[in-house]
Task: structure prediction
Amino acid sequence: MSDKVDLRNHIDCTQGKVFLDGEECTDATSYSIIFTPIISSTKTLGHTGEDTRWKGHNIKVNLSEYRSKPWLKNAIKNYLENGKTPVFTIQGMDMDTQSDYYADYGGQTVTVTGCVPIGDITVLAQDVNSEFMQDTITFAGKDLSFSGGKESEG
Result:
């Protein structure tokens, strides 16, 4: 039995930033960028399995933040007055310099363009059991790009 312990420095999810149209969301509490492949599967005679491939994708961004700026209200007002769909660019950054991932691969920035809010948007809420107004917004994204980090080998 070995006395050597494999201690790992996992990624600390609090060590990052998120930007909405280039402005840091300083009151963000969480965000996630999710890529979902759209698949197509076919079956052929003589084979018991399916052949599957990606034929497209969906991109979704979830952002939760304490309400401290009127960007949501302004987007809704602009839509109601002008009929213009609000479209944003969201950028997330992984910056945990103490993690093994960062040491091996560097930090990473993911940018999602063409982000349109989908789902319910709370315009006003009051609750005696809550302390601070927090919004959770889901966006459908159009394009996704990666930058930063070291090139992965092999």
Q: What stands out?
A: The chain has one domain: 16-41+51-147.
